[in-house]
Design a protein that fits this description.
Layout: E1 8-13, E2 16-22, E3 31-36, E4 41-44, E5 50-54, E6 58-62, E7 68-73, E8 88-91, E9 96-102, E10 105-112, E11 115-120, H1 141-165, H2 169-172, H3 179-194, H4 199-209
Antiparallel strand pairs: 1-2, 2-3, 3-4, 4-5, 5-6, 6-7, 8-9, 9-10, 10-11
């Protein structure tokens, strides 16, 4: 930092490396973020509470009260429907920012005195067919609804393309959605059956994906 305090530490051992962001304080070693090459990363608020937590499966964003604001899963590791990631940018302090665009595009930027250093701590974790990931956490009500509406929107877009390609109304009723949308709809219904949600919400989600 311009103050002379250590801002970023990079450590490495064999094919593993880590990046640690420290707060701009003289007599403390308060950690503001830790990024690891195995896909695990955590960012902290100034008071030490967890802000962003990421793993090889996905991540979550928490507010300062500890409530989950956002949750996502990396699309390349799971064939199941997933909540997509919207780009995230946070400022750990006036000099260090974190931008999360994708699993392999997680940038830590340091800016001071007109000069910038940028580190890409993203990674594409390869999971072998013999290894098993820990079971994913159950999706909440909002996330299940988001997945259902996403599939429904994709169904409508596919329907619109079909109408443009085949203007005859007789052919519209014969068109079937692509197999990947059918598979995603089935997966969402399976997730609803396993989730702790009301029967009314379960029925609503079923109606959305089967409309």
């Amino acid at each position: 930092y311009p103050s002379g305090n250590l801002a970023i530490i990079i450590t490495g051992e064999r094919d593993q490396h880590s990046l640690i962001v420290q707060e701009d304080e003289l007599r403390t070693t308060k950690i503001r973020a830790l990024f690891q090459s195995d896909g695990r990363s955590t960012c902290y608020y100034r008071n030490g509470d967890e802000w962003i937590n990421m793993s090889i499966q996905g991540g979550q964003y928490l507010d300062q009260a500890g409530n989950r604001v956002r949750r996502w899963m990396w699309p390349n590791l799971s064939p199941e429907p997933h909540v997509p990631l919207s780009p995230i940018f946070i400022s750990l302090n006036r000099h260090v920012g974190v931008r999360i665009l994708a699993q392999d595009k997680i940038f830590v930027s340091f800016l001071a005195m007109g000069r910038q250093a940028k580190f890409n701590m993203g990674t594409k974790v390869q999971v072998s067919t013999t290894s098993q990931l820990p079971p994913p956490a159950q999706l909440g009500e909002d996330e299940l609804l988001l997945l259902a509406f996403r599939v429904r929107i994709l169904q409508l877009f596919d329907r619109m393309r079909g109408c443009l390609n085949f203007p005859s109304t007789e052919q519209w009723n014969k068109m079937q959605p692509p197999m990947y949308l059918i598979t995603q709809a089935v997966k969402i219904l399976e997730l609803c059956m396993a989730a702790d949600i009301s029967d009314e919400l379960r029925s609503s989600i079923k109606a959305i994906v089967n409309a």
